[in-house]
Structure formats: structure tokens, C-alpha cells
């Protein structure tokens, strides 16, 4: 989209629209993948699904969680669940992505999101991976901003 001129990464309106459209689409795709994975048969587990395995494990009598029991009550909870000798989190890794909220100067983002949600479905069928929806939302937002500024 950048190469074709549809997306300007320095334009807060473009970034706002990009987030609004594609975060919903990505989250929906991830949710569908999760549902598919959790309900697919595992040949190594007699064709039970991960959901069936989890439910079966929760219903077993020897499961301490099933009868309301837990592990021994720890006396020092500062480090409970933390392995001090284990590997550290990936704090120094470069694989962390931070997506900060985009604010359009002079525009109430909550009001804009409400109007977008009422007017356009970001999850509707797309003929080109959501780019057509991005263009539609961008035009809608630009018109709203122009209308607000003309008052």
C-alpha cells in the first residue's frame, strides 16, 4: 500500500484507519485459527481434539483443580510461579512489537470510532485483502474531518 501511494506512514489519519481496519481483521483471523486448531483431531491422541483433551483432564478425579484443591499454599509468594534458575524473558529481544494508539489532532477518537463502527463493517468480505475497505474507511474519515473543520 505504501508503494502504490495508498498509505502514508507519516499521516496520522492513514495510520488511524490502518489500525482500525486491520487490527480487527487480524484479530478475527487469529480467533478463527484458534477455534480451528482447538477443534481439530489429533491422531496421536486417538483423534481427540485439544478441547476434548482439556475437558477430559479437568473432569478427572485426580486433577487437583477439579475438586477445588490446589498445590501447597506457598509461604513466600514473591517468587511463586517463577523459576529463578530458568531462562529470562525476552527483554533484550528485537521480536517485540509495540503498536501505540494513533491520535488525530483536533479529533475525538472515541467519537470517530463510534461513527465508524456504526457505518462500516471492517470484517466484511474484501476483494483484495482489506485494501478496498481501507480506502472506503479512509474516504469516510477524511469526509468526517472536513465536515468537522468546516463548522
TrEMBL record:
It comes from the Eukaryota. InterPro entries: Integrase_dom_put (IPR058913). Residues 1-61 form the Integrase core domain. This is Integrase core domain-containing protein. It comes from Paramuricea clavata.
